[in-house]
Amino acid sequence: MIKRAAVMALVGLMALATGAFADEGKDESGKGKQRDEERKRHEGSSSYFHQHGYTRIPDGHLPPPGECRVWYPDRPAGHQPPPFKCSEARGRVEPGGWLISPGPQPKEVEVAVYDARRPGVVIDVGIFDARTGSMIRIVGTK
């Protein structure tokens, strides 16, 4: 009986001591504090893309190289206006639309988000991969 109590005490002490060797970079979920901190940073982000979750443009709907396209995130892909020459972009974007234009690097496109209530006012800008449509980074308004 004394032997069993001694073993149980030893196991208890080892369990308490194990916490001291825990990985500081990990949280309880095992995903790590860095990811948790990044998530919290984006939760408070004022970026249009983070607030609305629009982080991808559907395959086959990016404009051809050197052209622009207006995209309305609340409309189905088949109901979007066709691509056009970027020099014709002025006044084409209705409130709440996106203007997709060539990006700062080859194989990138820039997406300017227009305010839903104030015509002609850009509220956010993001850079997307022209091959996949996935978001690369948010650059904000210029």
Automatic annotation (TrEMBL):
Residues 23-44 have a biased composition (Basic and acidic residues). Keywords: Signal. This is Uncharacterized protein. It comes from the Bacteria. Residues 1-22 form the signal peptide. Residues 23-60 are annotated as: Disordered. It comes from Aromatoleum buckelii.
